[in-house]
Specification:
- It is a single chain.
- The protein has ten helices and eleven strands.
- The relative contact order is 0.17.
- It is globular and about 50 Å long.
- Strands 1-11-8-7-5-6 form a six-stranded parallel β-sheet.
- The mean pLDDT is 96.
- By secondary structure, the protein is α/β, with parallel strands linked by helices.
C-alpha cells in the first residue's frame, strides 16, 4: 500500500512556520503585502483568488486585489500595473494569466521588480532557477512539488527521475530544481516516442503534461514515487490529474492525489515568497 502524499499536510506545516515569521516581521514594523492583479472575472481566476486570500489571512499577510475590466486598453493596463509595481508597501505581485485577448503581457514581464516577482514572470528570475541561484523566486507550482518531496523526506540524490511535461510554469524549471538536488532527470512530453518505456525505469515520476490520466499503471515500476501536478476533468466530468490514480496507487510507494495534492501547497509557496520579499524590504 502506498503512502499518500497529502499537500494539505505540507501546507499546514508551512503555514505554521510562516505565521511565526510574519509575527516577527510585524513586531519590527513590517506587514507583508501581496497584491493580486486580475483582468476580468474568469471563474478559475476567482477560485484561485479566494484560496490565495484565505491563505494570506491565515498567516497574517495583507492581500489586496486590483480588478481591471476585461476590455481595458494596453496603456491603461500597463499604467495600473506600474502603480502597483512602484508601491513601496507591496512585497509581491501576482498577475493572473493568460490575459484576455488584445492584451500583451511582455512589457509587464520585463518591468516587474524582481523582488516583487513572486510567481517568476520576469526572465531574470527564470534564469536564476536555471543557474541554481536561490535569491530569486521559482514558479510557485514547481516549488510546491519540491516542498512536497522535502516534507515526505524523498532523497533526490541520484534518483532516476522522469518529468512528463515541458512548460516554463512547471516542467522545465522543476527539472532544473531537481538537478540542483542531484537527481538524474529525463524530460518527456506528450510527443515523446514510447513514453511508457521512458517512465518504466524511473524511481520518481512527476506528471505535469496537462493530459488526463496519461500515466497508467503499466508505465511505472513497483515502488516508484509518483507526483501528480495535473488538473483536468475526465470524461465523466470529475476532477482528475495526469495520473490514473486508482490503479497506479497500488504500485507506487508514494503518490500525490488530485485534488488535495500539489495544488494545496501552491498558495503556501506564494505566501512564503511574499514573506521573503517583506524580509528584504525590512
Amino acid at each position: 500500500m502506498s503512502t499518500v502524499m497529502l499537500g494539505t499536510e505540507v501546507a499546514k506545516s508551512m503555514k505554521m512556520t510562516l505565521s511565526e515569521e510574519v509575527k516577527c516581521l510585524k513586531e519590527k514594523g513590517v506587514t507583508p503585502c501581496l497584491t493580486i492583479i486580475r483582468v476580468g472575472a474568469r471563474e478559475d481566476d476567482l477560485a484561485y483568488e479566494r484560496g490565495a486570500k484565505k491563505c494570506m489571512e491565515i498567516v497574517g499577510i495583507e492581500c489586496r486585489v486590483v480588478e481591471l475590466p476585461e476590455n481595458i486598453s494596453q496603456d491603461a493596463f500597463e499604467n495600473a500595473f506600474a502603480k502597483v509595481n512602484d508601491d513601496p508597501s507591496v512585497d509581491g505581485i501576482l498577475l493572473f494569466r493568460p490575459l484576455p485577448s488584445g492584451l500583451d503581457e511582455e512589457q509587464v514581464k520585463m518591468t516587474i521588480r524582481l523582488e516583487k516577482d513572486v510567481d517568476c514572470m520576469n526572465p531574470v528570475n527564470s534564469s536564476k532557477v536555471f543557474l541554481g541561484e536561490t535569491d530569486g523566486y521559482a514558479p510557485c507550482t514547481a516549488q510546491a512539488v519540491m516542498e512536497m518531496l522535502h516534507y515526505y523526506k524523498i532523497d533526490l540524490a541520484g534518483m532516476k527521475t522522469t518529468v512528463v511535461g515541458r512548460s516554463m510554469v512547471v516542467g522545465k524549471p522543476l527539472s532544473m530544481m531537481l538537478l540542483n538536488e542531484h537527481a538524474t532527470v529525463t524530460i518527456c512530453h506528450t510527443r515523446t516516442k514510447d513514453l511508457k518505456e521512458e517512465c518504466k525505469d524511473a524511481d520518481l515520476i512527476i506528471a505535469c503534461a496537462g493530459c488526463a490520466k496519461i500515466i497508467k499503471e503499466d508505465m511505472i515500476k513497483e515502488g516508484a514515487v509518483v507526483v501528480d501536478v495535473g488538473i483536468n476533468v475526465d470524461e465523466e466530468g470529475n476532477l482528475c490529474g495526469d495520473v490514473d490514480y486508482e490503479h497506479v496507487k497500488e504500485k507506487a510507494s508514494y503518490i500525490s492525489p488530485v485534488p488535495r495534492g500539489v495544488g494545496s501547497v501552491t498558495t503556501s509557496v506564494l505566501a512564503s515568497h511574499v514573506v521573503k520579499g517583506a524580509s528584504r524590504r525590512m
